[in-house]
Amino acid sequence: MSTPALFTPLTIRDLEIPNRAWLAPMCQYSAGTDGVPTAWHLVHLGARAAGGFGLVLTEATAVVPDGRISPQDVGIWNDDQVRAWRPITEFIHAQGAVAGIQLAHAGRKASVYAPGSPVSGSIGPAEGGWTTVGPSPIAFPGLADPRELSIEEIGEVVAAFAEAARRSDAAGFDVVELHAAHGYLLNNFLSPLSNHRTDSYGGDFGGRIRILVEVVDAVRAVWPADKPMFVRISGTEWLDDGWRVEDSARLATILAQHGVDLIDVSSGGNVLADIPVGPGYQVDLAREVHRVSGVATGAVGLITEPDQAEKIAADDDVTAVFLGRVALREPSWPQRAAHELGMSDNQAPYPQQYLRGTWRH
Ligand code: FNR
Fold first, then answer.
1. Most informative mutation of 26, 233, 283 for ligand 1 (most atoms within 8 A of CB)
2. First-to-last CA distance in the chain?
3. For the chain, which ranges sit under pLDDT 70?
4. CATH topology for 5-357?
5. pLDDT for 62-80, tens place per residue?
6. Ligand 1 test: best mutation among 22, 27, 40, 322, most atoms within 8 Å of CB?
């Protein structure tokens, strides 16, 4: 049989990615002191690499301490963190998978209690939290007011992303993804609903995307030319007066001109909205971004079944699928998918340690 689209390797720049079933970035709230990844991250990400995901992407990894969502988030702003990430990328590589890191600044949604804490919402400074920042002093509903970033501080944020990308390369990552979705700092700048600035970082489309384009340029300048760069966006805010899919397609065209290789298209998270959640509910956004811009896209959001994922991956408008919650339940989802799509034991993405006990025996 011919190889299913989901298991067809692809090459972006000089990086070969063995298949198109990719682990979505997912916060684990399990960092050690000061954003250092732990054995949890090695086991969590390592299990999914052994489980056959072609690209294993870390959770949102903060570029500065104040850019963490919660105090339990991981980071990549110092050398201790680089040293702790290295065995994780080495293990991912040993499984034949590719290692990606999602670089993030949580903006006005930073400094909150991690899920599972007895309390939720913003952590006050007296409890170990910090003052959040954003393009404008407009709070996310229910969270503390952010402080407006000065132009000088915007420059520091841009530099922090570049420094984090340099450290990511040193830590052995193959792909860098900038987190510009879900209501975190870069997304706060993109949206007219959270960015009310009147200077050159606000106002019209060109002003609102400016910080992201500067981050892309600064990261591309230090990130090796043979390694891919992705950007995750919220393709729509699901509100007529917010960021729309047309804006996403326009942004994708510009980002590609600045060296971005793939747009990972999610949605929502910057403001409250009714989201029509259902199987594959964001896939059409990825399709539309590619159709208009021609830029490669990844689709994410309730893609859970092998047949469903195969149809999406076979569509010319989507390059790869990201799997989130299903991958938490099923670390070796790609192995099951390979069998359900008719691949033989030898073709399926098994580590050699597991070949004796493959699915059919
Ligand atoms: C997420 N998601 C997410 N997204 C992101 O860009 N960075 C992140 O760090 C996280 N963290 C995170 C943690 C957990 C526990 C979940 C469940 C989700 C969103 C995730 O990447 C994905 O876009 C959504 O979960 C939708 O895909 P699924 O889960 O329906 O496949």
1. 26
2. 21
3. 358-361
4. TIM Barrel (3.20.20)
5. 999 999 999 999 999 999 9
6. 27
**What DSSP character marks residue 350?**
-
Phi and psi at 176, nearest 5°, equal -115, 130
Domain assignments of the chain as residue spans, ordered by start: 5-357
- Cα 324 to averaged position of ligand 1 atoms, centre (Å): 6
pTM of the model: 0.98
Give the integer Cα–Cα distance in Å for 302 and 296: 20
Q: What is the pLDDT of residue 356?
A: 76
pLDDT tens readout for residues 106-162? 999 999 999 999 999 999 989 999 999 999 999 999 999 999 999 999 999 999 999
Q: Which of 29, 113, 184, 354 is catalytic?
A: 184
* Dist. CA 109–CA 188, nearest whole Å: 10
Atom 19 of ligand 1, nearest CA residue: 26
Residues in contact with ligand 1 (CB, 6 Å cut-off) = 24-27, 59-60, 102, 179, 181-182, 232, 266, 300-303, 323-326
Distance (angstroms) between ligand 1 centre and the Cα of 27 equals: 7
Distance CA 148, CA 146 (A): 6
Annotation says 354 is catalytic = no
Alpha-carbon distance 334 to 326, whole Å?
11
The confidence score (pLDDT) of residue 360 equals 59
The three-point CA angle 171-172-175 to 5° equals 110
Q: Is the dihedral of CA 105, 109, 114, 115 positive or negative?
A: negative
Sign of torsion over alpha carbons 255, 291, 243, 177: negative
For the CA of 303, the nearest atom of ligand 1: 31
